[in-house]
Design a protein that fits this description.
Elements (H helix, E strand, L loop, with lengths): L1 H4 L12 E5 L8 E3 L16 E3 L3 E8 L2 E10 L8 H5 L13 H4 L17 H9 L7 H10 L5 E5 L5 H15 L12 E4 L3 H21 L21 H8 L9 E4 L5 H10 L3 E4 L1 H21 L2 H19 L3 E5 L1 H6 L3 H11 L2 H7 L4 H5 L10 E6 L4 H9 L16 H7 L9 E5 L9 E7 L5 H11 L4 E4 L3 H13 L4 E4 L5 H13 L4 E4 L14 E4 L6 H8 L9 E7 L4 H10 L9 E2 L3 H40 L6 H5 L3 H29 L2 E2 L15 H7 L5 H9 L14 E2 L10 E2 L26
Parallel strand pairs: 6-11, 6-12, 7-9, 7-10, 8-9, 10-11, 13-18, 14-16, 14-17, 15-16, 17-18, 20-21
Antiparallel strand pairs: 1-5, 2-3, 4-5, 19-22
Helix pairs in contact: 4-7, 5-6, 6-7, 10-11, 10-13, 18-23, 19-23, 23-25
The structure holds adenosine-5'-triphosphate.
């Protein structure tokens, strides 16, 4: 059929429509639609996406086993649509008939990127690296690429933000681009990347998709500028207009990348899978569900439908499982976190599909006979990459040896950790996987400045508020429990700060939305549990704050790793209450360090006292608000329960016309009134400037110099101001800016306000901070 063989560049007659028959709803050419506001479906209603399809005719065909439903779709000969009938003929649709020459025709002057030259990457990849201004490979990329590109297995351990995604991503893309594409009805899975959390999986997918689409763009006839930051990668998040705009330019990537995570439409993800992808990024839970889900559909059909349908579904299941068995590359990103996320069982099940019989016998010799007549064997040439910022040295040694500890004389052996156990189940095809450990001693990234503050647990809110006001920027605050986030988020909002929550009990859509808001709002705050600790690559996070001490050294490292990425500066603050001291000591000792080596941040106590007042008021408002909410909730509950039981409630109860009702109404009014008073008080307090010690609000209005203007403008000649300028580096730096909300202080970086516990030992500390504050003469009258 000529339409199937049409060259993608040949102009298509968009007006002529063809009829294509599909046997299942999933195969229809669904398109994402933006949700119109008037449907009231644009909010946080738990619906992630809407899709529509035009021109569908539903027909029922009589078969021996009964009626079979078919869908006829009138559609333009769209090169992106996969025509089932053609696929069934064994001929590929036009869109997938890649030109084997295509990948070799692209050229790029490798001299433009001399540092990447030794790796002989495909020219399209070099071109994208050039467009992204990635002129130099990061250390982990330099070390891993030579092995990964020569088919070796690699275990890579490197600090957070050091470019591990491309350390395994580039070899995968290179491998796929290097193969001449055999015409086939569907792409078969080449690489599977397993990531512990949805956000991380989506991010890896973004990263690789942006690359793959830009690679495709480099092959278009007309050279075009591709703004990589704007390339939309998830079909699921595209809106209609965007999709059609991109279709002619960036769709049909040479390497197709898909993501499979919980919380997003499983049907859509399956549809994408069915069309065929080269690289799949998945969380183990959703991938295993998807593999299992087909089996249950298959069983359902066994009971309800005829045998033909039954075998059809069995084939589908086999295709997906077989694709995993046939993988060319398997990647475990943040392998250690998969265990924490409770994915052991799913991971184990998925890994079993990739494990060869000989390895299986080694892991579970008792299953030998059972497995011997199972499905076709896994691919002998699969490459395995394991990457993380934290893999213990012990674990690396075990991986290198590829052996389980031998039982001792008495038959006992040291029990394996869950992670050891899981990683030793990996069937590296390489007899000596290359282990590259570039993790920094003590786990601290060189561009990260760590700090701490000791305070009572009940005063953490005020200290946090102080830090956020004193050092504006994008701050990620980690809390150990969701309850803490629920309490803190409204509190910070009442204090006029932009705080967005991120935790596992939020809808996936809301999680992504909050992440986006955080990325787009200057000086915003993300209040997160440890689901945000790993892998998230949010540009320009200035501060990471551990509101509660993390439960392990690994979590500490990963949390810190959200700042100071890709050699940028970053700052972390550990908030430690007296009852957390012991945990902090243990945490640092497991990193081979002492907590006393971490400098403290200096705090202007006068300002802190003012802030405590604000926090106290905000808490009171929040409590009042909760009381009012609880009352409303109880009334609503009573009403709903009565309706459900078909009981008529005494109208007095609802209308508040009897004494009790009146009391409730009165109480509500009282609470609302109190809240309004407190809100007004807080508003007034927030509008008052915060004034550092030594600064007076009283000043002489007569005379030749407007002193107040000088203070606000960062100028001044008084003794106090000269000292103040010196202390805050104002004097020597004409660009130095006075703090907007804290009068009398310069707007400094948190790095310059540190004081070491071991003052003499720590060279990084600004010794000027040790000046006795009592010496400040002030300019008050
Ligand atoms: N060669 C390079 N040159 C410049 N920037 C790079 C390079 N490689 C990657 N990056 C950028 O560095 C940032 C961090 O990369 P990536 O997310 O891969 O780090 P990571 O090591 O996986 O971090 P984590 O351990 O926290 O997951 C990304 O924004 C990425 O685009």
């Amino acid at each position: 059929m000529s339409k199937r063989k049409a060259h993608p560049r040949r102009p298509l007659d968009a007006t002529k429509k063809i009829k294509v028959q599909h046997g299942s709803l999933d195969k229809l050419p669904w398109k994402s639609v933006a949700r119109p506001v008037e449907t009231v479906l644009d909010g946080d209603d738990g619906i992630l996406e809407l899709e529509e399809v035009d021109n569908v005719e539903v027909v029922y065909e009589e078969k021996d086993g009964g009626k079979v439903i078919k869908f006829n779709v009138l559609q333009p000969p769209d090169i992106t649509a996969i025509d089932e009938s053609s696929a069934a003929d064994g001929e590929p649709p036009a869109s997938l008939t890649e030109d084997p020459q295509q990948s070799t025709t692209a050229s790029f002057d490798a001299a433009l990127l001399p540092k990447w030259r030794p790796f002989s990457l495909q020219p399209q990849l070099l071109q994208v690296l050039h467009m992204k201004s990635f002129t130099t490979p990061t250390p982990i990329q330099s070390r891993a690429l030579p092995f990964a590109l020569s088919n070796r297995d690699v275990v890579g351990v490197a600090e957070t933000g050091s470019g591990k995604t491309l350390a395994y991503g580039l070899p995968i893309l290179h491998r796929i681009l290097s193969q001449p594409r055999r015409p086939s009805s569907k792409r078969s899975l080449q690489a599977l990347i397993l990531a512990p959390t949805r956000e991380l999986a989506l991010q890896v997918s973004d990263h690789l998709s942006a690359f793959s689409r830009a690679v495709s763009a480099t092959l278009k006839d007309e050279p075009q500028e591709v703004d990589l930051s704007k390339v939309e990668v998830h079909a699921s998040t595209k809106c209609k207009g965007q999709e059609s705009k991109n279709r002619n330019t960036l769709d049909l990537p040479l390497v197709s990348v898909a993501v499979l995570v919980g919380g997003m439409s499983a049907q859509k993800q399956r549809r994408i899978l069915n069309r065929g992808v080269d690289v799949l990024i998945a969380t183990p839970g959703r991938l295993w569900d998807t593999l299992e889900e087909v089996r249950s559909v298959e069983a359902w059909y066994c009971v309800r439908e005829n045998k033909i349908l039954c075998s059809l579904f069995f084939d589908q299941d086999e295709i997906l499982a077989q694709e995993v068995r046939n993988l060319k590359v398997l990647v475990l990103d943040e392998a250690d976190r998969m265990i924490e996320a409770g994915h052991f069982a799913e991971m184990d099940n998925i890994l079993r599909l990739t494990v060869r019989q000989s390895k299986q016998d080694e892991i579970e010799p008792e299953l030998k006979a059972q497995e011997s007549n199972a499905s076709p064997p896994p691919n002998d040439n699969m490459q395995t990459f394991v990457f993380s910022a934290t893999l213990s040295k012990d674990l690396q040694r075990n991986l290198k040896r590829r052996s389980r500890p031998k039982p001792g004389k008495n038959g006992n052996s040291k029990p394996l950790s869950t992670l050891d156990d899981l990683l030793l189940r990996l069937d590296f095809r390489d007899p000596t996987p290359e282990i590259i450990d570039l993790s920094p001693d003590g786990g601290a990234v060189s561009t990260l400045q760590e700090s701490k503050v000791e305070c009572l647990a009940s005063e953490k809110d005020a200290h946090l508020y102080y830090f956020l006001l004193r050092y504006p920027g994008r701050s990620l605050v980690f809390l150990s429990a969701i309850d803490g986030i629920r309490r803190l988020a409204p509190l910070l909002e009442l204090l006029d700060l932009h705080a967005f929550p991120l935790h596992s009990q939020l809808e996936q859509r809301q999680r992504l939305k909050n992440l986006d808001r955080f990325k787009l709002t200057p000086n915003s705050i993300l209040l997160a549990t440890d689901i945000a600790a790993r892998g998230l690559d949010i540009p320009a996070i200035d501060h990471v704050i551990h509101y509660q001490v993390p439960r392990s050294a690994d979590v500490f490292i990963h949390r810190n790793g959200r700042t100071a990425r890709a050699m940028h500066n970053g700052f972390s603050l550990l908030m430690c209450s007296p009852d957390e001291r012991r945990t902090v000591r243990a945490l640092f000792s497991s990193l081979g360090r002492q907590d006393t080596d971490i400098p403290d941040i200096t705090i202007e106590l006068t300002l802190l006292d003012h802030l405590k007042e604000r926090v106290r008021l905000a808490r009171q408002i929040d409590v009042q608000h909760h009381r009012a909410k609880k009352q409303n909730h109880e009334r609503r509950w009573l009403k709903e329960a009565a309706e459900a039981m078909e009981i008529e409630l005494d109208s007095d109860i609802m209308s508040g016309s009897d004494d009790e009702g009146r009391a409730t109404k009165h109480e509500r009014k009282r609470i609302n009134g109190q809240t309004a008073v407190l809100r007004a008080e807080l508003k007034e307090m927030l509008s008052r400037p915060l004034i550092a010690r030594g600064v007076s609000t009283r000043y002489i209005t007569s005379g030749s110099r407007p002193i107040a203007d000088d203070i606000l403008g960062g100028k001044g000649s008084s003794r106090w101001f000269m000292r103040r300028r010196e202390k805050n580096n104002i004097g020597s730096n004409p660009d130095c800016i006075v703090h907007e909300t804290m009068l009398g202080l310069a707007r400094t970086d948190a790095r310059s306000d540190l004081v070491s516990v071991h003052r003499s030992r720590n060279a990084t500390v600004d010794t000027k901070q040790e000046e006795d504050p009592e010496e400040w003469a002030g300019i008050g009258f």
